[in-house]
Structures are given as structure tokens and as C-alpha cells.
Input
Amino acid sequence: MSLKDQQSLDFVIAGGGTAGWIAAALLARFSPPGTRVQLVESEAIGTVGVGEATIPQIHLLNNALGLDERDFLRETKATFKLGIEFDGWQREGHAYMHAFGQVGRGAGLLPFQQYWLRAQQLGLAKPLKHYSLNETAARGLKMQRGRRTPQSLEMPYAYHFDAGLYASYLRRYSELRGVTRHEGMIARVECDGESGEIAALVLDDDRRIEGRFFIDCTGFRALLIDGALEAGFDDWSNVLPCNRAMAVPCATGGDFTPYTCSIARKAGWQWRIPLQHRIGNGYVYCSDHLSDEEAAETLLANLDGKALGDPKPIKFTTGKRRKHWHRNCLALGLAAGFLEPLESTSIHLIQSAMSRFLTVLPKGAGDPAIVDHFNTQADFEWERIRDFLVLHYWANEREGDPFWDGVRNMELPATLQRKIEQWQSAGFIHREHEELFTEVGWFQVLAGQGVEARSYNPAADSLSEDELKALLADTETAISAEVRQMPDHAPFLRSYMMQNMPQ
Ligand code: FAD
Output
């Protein structure tokens, strides 16, 4: 690309929520000199105001931007996150964790789950929590960054943070690096009659914001990708029927857990996300089975501290845009679609779409071969995450609740059906190319929700029973020893943030 061509890179971002400011920050950081980046947002409309739990891939974004971790923790009131606890999902009174990082260790050819399944048949296996460093640390409210010794096990982590503060933090970052912000209400999206491409955003005071490529970050409104370009929507309510969330933060006692809680309720589930200054709570539910009033009542009755405001209802339809990139427009964040926050994937989907986008960085609409490829990758990524979420609902034994009976009996996507059958027949789990969730993630949810594997790979029999016992016991001992010396999460976070504070 010649310098002249590079100078014509010209982006307009519509919307300044988490998606808009992540896009702005990444463009400011990675596009060549001379690129114009403008962002339009309306304070009168505001942002969705939820979205606080992340997965470890958030480090890729923060590192790419060169953010200092301590600064980030202070600015966004973040806490550390080692996994998600699913309480009551299989049945009332039962809980398991999808913890980040490894569970157990393999031996030779096979992954750990094969030895664990064999040990289960022999009556030797304990629940997975005994073989996960992250889960053991999380349940003990412990936290450690990095490895204590080169031999120590790795403990991957993510964060809970205030998404509004994160967006403000990235706004400062972006504006310092040349992004122009326009405050105002987009009244109209102007398209070129011939090409059908977007030419400008027209604000309600008649300002015209022109650009060559537009990024739709207008949230559920999807003003550009849907309103103007009608890219279509794949509705996934048949497998993810929840369509409402009632959210309210509450006061915290300051002894925050290093994990997210997801608690099954009558017609959905409740999240609990501890931040430094408050706890984020919400009830995700299906309006066919629960009224807004009942949801608010249940939520308010199940808070750790005083509610900081009135519950705020949010309506949504699960699914995704048929084309994430259409003509000269890319949809990001809620404008691209919505999967439930069950596995904290929305912010990740913003960053992964942007990282793919940066590898092609188009001047105008983009070459159709590239756009097709981008959309195929996006479809794959979204569909596999959908499958993972659907598994949580389907594999339940909560008989008698119409909502849970419905999801237990729903028809599954063929891709998920195949994965479940592979597990059931021989404990086999295969992570497909570029799929977000790893074998260990699938393993924890399949086993945690009580989906039984009828058999295991016979190669697991190559270990003698004593060797198998030693494999399990050694793993558990190493994990306990590691966790015993870890500091408590809350004091660790406070002291870590204080290091290198500007005087
Ligand atoms: P928004 O925050 O809605 O921002 C939209 C922007 O567009 C705003 O700046 C608004 O002012 C602007 N805008 C809209 N219309 C106009 C107009 N006409 N003129 C000018 N500006 C306009 N994600 C996670 O990763 N983890 C979670 O735990 C998580 N939990 C969630 C829970 C719920 C219930 C929901 C609904 C979402 C959750 N998410 C979560 C998703 C997360 O909130 C979003 O992905 C993220 O905040 C991005 O939102 P956004 O920027 O796309 O949209």
C-alpha cells in the first residue's frame, strides 16, 4: 500500500460504549499516520451500562494497547477473576466451576479427562475442583499473579471491571492519540444511491460526519448495520430463549470473591460480579415464564448488600447479524448481536472482531473475498460460543420448572449435538479450529452439569491403578501446596495496586 493510499484511511465510529471506545483505541494505536478516526456518541442516550466480567483474552487487548495493569485496575475499579461458579444449574444445591486454566494433567497421549473418567469408573475420582488450581484458589479466596517458581502451575486470570469506567479510560487514551469525538445525536444515516454504501452520519443539528468506513457501535439500536443497511439477523431465541435482564448494583463489604457467580433461578439465572466499589447483579430471564416485577423482586431479595438504585430492565433478542461486515460498515458489540453474558464473552467478541479487522484495515468497502472471509470467521466464532452456552441450559435436571423443562427438551444445533455425542460415547472432546472455548472448558461444563460419558479411551488403561491413583493424588497435592502460600485476594489486590503509584 502506498503512503498516499494509507493516508486515505478514514473511519467513523458510531457510538461510544465499550465497543466504540475499544474500536477507537485500537485504531488510534494501530492505524498508520494520517488515518482519520472520528467517533460520534450521545450522552443523552448513554450506554447500556452493564458488562463487567471478562475472560483471560482481555490481556491481549490491554497489552496491545500498552495499558499498565495497576493503572487499569485503579481506573476501572477492577478485581481479579479466576472462573465462573454455576450454582444450581444441574439441580438445586449443586454447584461447579468453569475455572480458567488447566484441570489436572494428562499423561502421555491422553488429556486428563480420559484418566479422570477411568478413575470415576473405579470409584477413585474426586470432583474436578480438586484438580484445578484456579478453582481451589478461587474457593479459598486466594490470588496470585504469575508463577512463584518456574515449576509452579500457571494460573490464568481475567477481571471484573466497571465497563463504563473502562470506556472512559479508553476514551482518554483515544483522544490523546488523535481520535476526534463528536457529541450529538445521530438522526439519519445517509447512503450513496448508487453503491448503497454509507456516506455520512447526519446529526440532529444537521452536522454531517463523513467517512469512508463506518463502525456501528450503537448498541441494540444497530442504526447503521440494521437501520440503514438491513444486514439481517439470525434469531437464536429457539435455543437461547432468555430475552430480558434486570440489573442493579449493590453495596459491597470489600471482601470480594475472585470469581463470577451464576445462580440458576426459576426462569433464568442471576449474576453476581464483585468490583472494588460495588457488586454488579442481574437476573437474565425469559419473559414467557416470568414478569418484570417478579424478576425485580427475586433480584432484590438476593443481594449481598443494599441496592444502589432501582433495578434496570433491559430487553434483548439473542442472535447475531447475518453479516457482521456489510458494504463499508462493520458492526461491533451489541450492534453485532447478543449472546447471553453467561460466559462473559461479549467484550471478547468486540476485541476479536477488531483484531481480525486490523489485519485487513480497509480504505473503503473492502474486497468481497476479504469481507466474506471475515464474516465466515465471525459466524464460526459466534456459533461455537452459542453452542457452549446452550449446553449449560440443556444439561439440567431442574424438573418441574417450565422454563428449565423447555430448555432441557429443546432441539439442539447439530454442531452441539455432535459434540455431546462424542463426549457421551468415549469422553472425546475436540476443539475446532479457532473455537474460543478449549477442551478443558467443555470438559468442566459437561462433567459439571452431569452429562455422563459412557466410556473412555482404552489407552487410559495403560496406566496401572497405582499410577492412576498417583496421577490424581500428585496433582491435588501440588495444587494444595501452591494455594496454601497464596495471599488473600482482596488484600493482594489493594497492595498490588498501590505499587508504583504516582507520588
Ligand atoms: P452500548 O453500551 O449500548 O453503547 C451504544 C453507544 O451508541 C452509546 O454511546 C450511545 O450513546 C450510542 N448511540 C446509540 N444511538 C445513538 C444515536 N442515535 N446517536 C448517537 N449515539 C448513539 N459483556 C461482557 O463481556 N461481560 C459481561 O459480563 C456482560 N454482561 C452483560 C449483561 C447484559 C444484561 C447485557 C445486555 C450485556 C452484557 N455484556 C457483557 C455486553 C456488554 O455490555 C456489551 O458488549 C458492551 O458494553 C458493549 O456495548 P456497546 O458499546 O455495543 O453498546
